[in-house]
């Protein structure tokens, strides 16, 4: 079953990278249409592309493979509950960036940059908590 762990780690790394990149892209896109041009004519704007094509599939794969690891290995420890709470923080940051993408598409850029930085902070703190809990695996 090492392949499940490999898939989980790769998906998690991709999701974390997208959660760090997407708020910065949103803050740049909120500056105006000149700063947020599509990457090719007729293609969707970058924030929507990154959210729909990169971040969301990576998040779903990370959560599904993590659930599979939990079920196959029969993990049941206190640190796992705390890790899942930290993952919930990452999910909230993911949802917040999706909401900000929709605000930008509706033409409302007011408050997008501060919201993106708040989502970035939540994502970063949650990621650090996940890494700390996985590496330490405290006994409780």
UniProtKB/TrEMBL annotation:
<keyword id="KW-0408">Iron</keyword>
<keyword id="KW-1003">Cell membrane</keyword>
<keyword id="KW-0349">Heme</keyword>
<protein>
    <recommendedName>
        <fullName>Protoporphyrinogen IX oxidase</fullName>
        <ecNumber>1.3.99.-</ecNumber>
    </recommendedName>
</protein>
<keyword id="KW-1133">Transmembrane helix</keyword>
<keyword id="KW-0472">Membrane</keyword>
<feature type="transmembrane region" description="Helical">
    <location>
        <begin position="84"/>
        <end position="102"/>
    </location>
</feature>
<comment type="function">
    <text>Catalyzes the oxidation of protoporphyrinogen IX to protoporphyrin IX.</text>
</comment>
<keyword id="KW-0479">Metal-binding</keyword>
<keyword id="KW-0560">Oxidoreductase</keyword>
<feature type="transmembrane region" description="Helical">
    <location>
        <begin position="50"/>
        <end position="72"/>
    </location>
</feature>
<feature type="transmembrane region" description="Helical">
    <location>
        <begin position="114"/>
        <end position="136"/>
    </location>
</feature>
<dbReference type="InterPro" id="IPR005265">
    <property type="entry name" value="HemJ-like"/>
</dbReference>
<comment type="similarity">
    <text>Belongs to the HemJ family.</text>
</comment>
<keyword id="KW-0812">Transmembrane</keyword>
<dbReference type="Pfam" id="PF03653">
    <property type="entry name" value="UPF0093"/>
</dbReference>
<comment type="pathway">
    <text>Porphyrin-containing compound metabolism; protoporphyrin-IX biosynthesis; protoporphyrin-IX from protoporphyrinogen-IX: step 1/1.</text>
</comment>
């Amino acid at each position: 079953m090492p392949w499940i762990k490999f898939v989980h780690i790769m998906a998690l790394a991709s999701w974390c990278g997208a959660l760090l990149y997407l708020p910065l892209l949103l803050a740049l896109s909120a500056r105006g249409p000149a700063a947020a041009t599509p990457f090719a004519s007729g293609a969707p704007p970058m924030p929507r592309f990154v959210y729909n094509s990169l971040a969301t599939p990576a998040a779903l794969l990370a959560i599904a493979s993590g659930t599979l690891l939990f079920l196959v290995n029969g993990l049941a420890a206190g640190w796992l509950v705390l890790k899942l709470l930290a993952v919930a923080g990452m999910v909230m940051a993911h949802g917040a960036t999706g909401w900000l993408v929709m605000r930008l598409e509706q033409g409302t850029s007011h408050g997008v940059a501060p919201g993106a930085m708040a989502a970035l902070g939540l994502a970063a703190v949650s990621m650090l908590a996940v890494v700390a809990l996985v590496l330490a695996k405290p006994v409780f």
